[in-house]
Design a protein that fits this description.
This protein has a 7-stranded mixed sheet, sandwiched between helices. It is built from 5 helices and 7 strands, in the order E-H-H-H-E-E-E-H-E-H-E-E. The longest helix is centred in the middle third of the chain and has 16 residues.
């Protein structure tokens, strides 16, 4: 499928309940097909279990400021901001990698943080996502070992101070 590299067709908007199924598939597919380059098969299967709907995506995404990149009905990526500045899930569709989609989502998240008076954003970035967050101005607090469904993973606690 041809993608417009200018990203003119992509709108960044807040999550809607009807997005849940696409977001679940996007998360699962991204972990299984992109993060597999940095993690083992067992790790990605623990991270994104075979049951694509293992998480109640409607409930969780509705509780946060979840921004989606909508390319004429195709969700190209999404990111979740919590009210304390935590960026939780942040994923781009495998077909939209390295095209600026993540940057557009991130800028929407940072703008919302400004609006909420949040002065520090923080996240736990995967090995795969670490370079992206570094490009967005985050610094590494520490490399850490985390557990998920019986598997051990390396990720990075990262932060960014933001000011108006």
């Amino acid at each position: 499928m041809f993608k417009d590299s200018s990203l003119n067709s992509i709108d960044i908007r807040l999550f809607q309940k009807q997005d849940a199924e696409q977001i679940a598939r996007l998360f699962h597919q991204t972990v299984r097909e992109v993060n597999i380059n940095d993690y083992s098969t067992n790790q990605v299967k623990a991270w994104a279990p075979d049951d694509v709907n293992f998480r109640n995506w409607v409930s969780v995404c509705s509780e946060k400021f979840t921004y989606v990149a909508d390319d004429k009905g195709i969700i190209a990526g999404f990111g979740e901001l919590e009210s304390d500045g935590h960026i939780d899930c942040f994923y781009c569709n495998k077909d939209y990698q390295r095209m600026g989609v993540g940057k557009k989502i991130y800028y929407a998240i940072e703008a919302k943080a400004y609006q909420l008076g949040i002065h520090r954003l923080y996240t736990e970035a995967s090995i795969t996502a670490k370079p992206f967050f570094l490009r967005m101005g985050f610094s590494i607090i520490k490399k850490q070992q985390v557990e998920c469904r019986g598997e051990s993973f390396i990720n990075y606690a990262m932060k960014k101070d933001i000011t108006a």
